Amino acid sequence: MKLAIVILNWNGAAMLRRFLPSVLTYSQSEATVIVADNASTDDSLEVLHNEFPECGIIQLGRNWGFAEGYNRALRQVEAEYYLLLNSDIEVSHHWLTPMIELLDTHSDVAACQPKLLSVADHDMFEYAGAAGGYLDRYGYPFCRGRIFDTVERDNGQYDFQTDILWASGAALMIRSSDYWSVGGLDGRFFAHNEEIDLCWRLRLRGRRIVCVSDSCVYHVGGGTLPKGNPMKTYLNFRNNLTMLYKCLPDGELRHVMRWRWLLDRLAAWQMLVIGRSWQDFCAVYRARRDFRRRRKEFDADRAAIQSGRVAKEIPEQRHFSVLWQYYVRRKRLFSDLV
């Protein structure tokens, strides 16, 4: 098949009832829609069988998390292009066409994403991806349309196609050949930062990642682990450090990790000051501890990534500190950074 849309589900029966109808209505002419179930304990499978019989189903034996769940599901799917889609996404007419046309006509593009707006307010960007993602010098992600907690209103300011460093895993279209050429998502991440890690590895191989603003979807966001959840804090910090260890070149790794030793501790204390929980504070320290403990597990990955890199400079990895720009220089919009 040309395109398979694969929705990873875990106890999301309500989300399936709410959002799957739009996906089926506006996608079936161009794609096969499949739900991969991560061993849900709610009535997700009954909902799929009874209310969406036209939808393909892959049943996974346990909850493998986002990263490994997708790896195990996609191994059972034969398609030229995959589209990883969150279960809390609402789509509209012709949302697939611009992305398919891009991959069909640009063989150097490995993956792309649509513009992500909020379900709650269709004029606002959505936190998890907005109009395409970047990294700063120290590994902090930001987007066109979202820097930290500042989310912009969509006034058409990013309505042009552009190269990005990472595409949001909420709606990620990728060539199956590129996906497997780098081993897919890193299942050891479980969830969070896994799509950034995947896209960064592809960029290091010279493959392009693009935001296709002619395509637009609407995202709820934070459905599984809402903002402020200590487990989300833990996974974000642990996985971000792991990603840096794998992907940064030798000449930058030690410098960046020294700064992150300080910056991560400042972030933990800021969480206490602004009223986040003691559990979030502890989650940062636990994330750093666990990264140190398992760092050697990724030595082989690091060696393979560094030996296979063809791109010395990646323009979408900015050389400034987004923390400095945001908190000190008060540059809160992406357009201010450039």
Structural class: alpha/beta
Alpha-carbon Rg, integer: 19 Å
Which residues sit in consecutive blocks of at least 5 with pLDDT less than 50?
Answer: none
Measured by DSSP, the beta-strand proportion falls in 15-25%
User: What's the overall average pLDDT, rounded?
Assistant: 94
What does the overall shape look like?
A: globular
Helix content: 40-55%
List the helices and strands in order. Answer: EHEHEHEEHEEEEEEEHHEHHHHHH
Q: Give the terminus-to-terminus CA distance.
A: 41 Å
Largest sheet: 9 strands, mixed
Total number of strands: 13
How many helix segments? 12
Could you characterize the architecture of this molecule?
This protein has helices at residues 13-27, 44-51, 65-74, 97-105, 176-181, 194-204, 230-247, 250-273, 278-294, 299-308, 322-328, 334-337; strands spanning 3-9, 32-37, 56-59, 81-85, 89-90, 109-118, 133-135, 141-143, 146-147, 150-151, 162-164, 171-175, 208-219. Strands 1, 2, 3, 4, 5, 6, 11, 12 and 13 form a nine-stranded mixed beta sheet that branches. Strands 7-8 form a two-stranded antiparallel ribbon. The mean pLDDT is 94. Strand 1, helix 1 (13-27) and strand 2 (32-37) form a beta-alpha-beta unit. The termini are far apart. With 338 residues, the chain is α/β, with parallel strands linked by helices. It contains twelve helices and 13 strands.
